[in-house]
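Minutes, project huddle
Topic: does the predicted pose make sense with zinc ion bound?
PN asked that the exact inputs be recorded in the minutes so nobody has to dig through chat later. Recorded below.
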Amino acid sequence: MPELPEVETTRRGIAPHVEGREIVEVIVRQGRLRVPVPDDFVDRLVGSRIGPLARRAKYLLIPLRTAEADTSEGAGADGVEEPSSATLLWHLGMSGSLRIARLGELPKKHDHIDLVLDDGGLLRYHDPRRFGFVDWLAGGVEQDPRLARLGPEPLSDTFDGERLYRLSRGRRMAVKPFLMDNAVVVGVGNIYAAEALFLAGIDPRRAAGRISLERYERLAVAVREVLAAAITQGGTTLRDFVSGTGEPGYFKQRLNVYGRHGQACRRCGGELRLVTLGQRASVFCIECQH
Ligand code: ZN
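Predicted holo structure (C-alpha cells), as shared on screen:
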C-alpha cells in the first residue's frame, strides 16, 4: 500500500514532467473509483496548466491554473481578480500509482485515467483495486474536510516529542495506535510505526499516557529517521516513473521488525513476537522494547 514515502517519491518522480504543462485532453476509462470521478472532471481540466506539485499526508496535490484565468489577462482593471486556481486532490488508495507515459503508449489493464499534456507526455493513473480517487477542489485546499483535521507532517518542525508527550497525557490506549492517529501526526502507517518504536526501544503495547517526554523525543527522532530513509531509498526508483515497464515507486527497505515475527531480532537475537493492537498486527522484540 502506498504510504507517505511512496506518495512523496511519486511527487518527486512526476513533478519535472508535469509542472508547467498544459492539459490538452483527459481520458477516463474507468471512473468508478472510491469516490466516483466527477461528471465535469474532463471539462474542468482541459486547458488548465499544472502548477508546483505538493503533498499533504498521503494526498498528492496538483494545483491547476484554469483556462478562464489564462484568458482573463488584461481584464480586472479594477484590481478584482476571479478565483484563478483549483487543485486536484489525488489519493492512491491501496494499490494506485501515477507514472509518466508517452502519447501512443497503449494503456494496460487498470490504467484508468490519462491526463494528456501539451508536450506529448501523459500522466497515467493505474489502480487495480480502485480504492484510490481523484477529486477537483476549487480554491482552499486546507479547508477541505479531508485535510482540515490532519495533524502535522512528520518531517516538519511542528512535529516533535513534546507534541507526542502533550497529546498523550491521560490516554490509556497503546502507543502504537496513538502514533498512527492522523490527528496526532500524519503518515505514520503500520510499517513505520512498528519500525520507529523498535528504534526508540518502546514496547508498542505500552499505554501512551505513561511514556516520558525523553522517550517521546527519541520516538519523534526515530519516526523522522525511518520516513526519511524510505524517501531516500525511493529516490533510487525515480527513473521508474518514466520507464514504460513495470510498476513505479514501491520499494522494499530493510526492515527490523515489520513482517518478521518468529525471526531473530537483529539487535539481540531473540525471537520477534506478534501482537494485535488497534486491529493491526504488530511485531516487536520483548527484550529490546520496554
Ligand atoms: Zn531484541
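Observations noted during the meeting:
- Helices lie at 4-18, 41-45, 67-71, 145-148, 161-168, 175-179, 190-200, 213-235.
- DSSP finds eight helices and eleven strands in the chain.
No decisions taken; revisit at the next huddle.
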